[in-house]
Amino acid sequence: MTYMFSRQTTFTATLATLSLGMVLLLAGCGGGSSDKGGRARIPTSGKVDVDGQPAPAGIVTFLNPESGNTVICQIDDGYYESPSGEGAATGNNLVLVEIWESPEGPAKYAAWKKEVQVGDADFTEDFALNSSELQPADPSSRVAEDGL
Questions:
Q1: Which residues contact 110 (CB under 8 A, 6 or more apart)?
Q2: What is the pTM for the complete model shown?
Q3: Which of 54, 90, 145, 146 is surrounded by the most beta carbons within 10 Å?
């Protein structure tokens, strides 16, 4: 028995198969332990001091420019930690540290930048900042509210 399919039916079936393949590819596998570039997401933590004193509040942001993965860690009394299930992507990351006067703000110092290399194990990086090297923040902007 020979089946004949029209060009439109064949095209529609091919398009549906390709669409399903793209959905599965974009969805990926796993439970959030890797970023959208396929890199592992590593739990991230550390301390932030300004002039030898714990930073009262602020954020530490890790941005992997290759994958686009970003994780924002809140600073609480000089300590930061990535949210549960999140973390910095392995590889080169740009770190932005913004110091606030309190958890409610305002920002005291503008984002300070550094590049770090995140490996395959839990990542700990302490930042000892000197206020004479930091730029005062524009009180009308905060990285967490305005985005990167």
A1: 98, 134, 135, 136, 137, 138
A2: 0.69
A3: 90
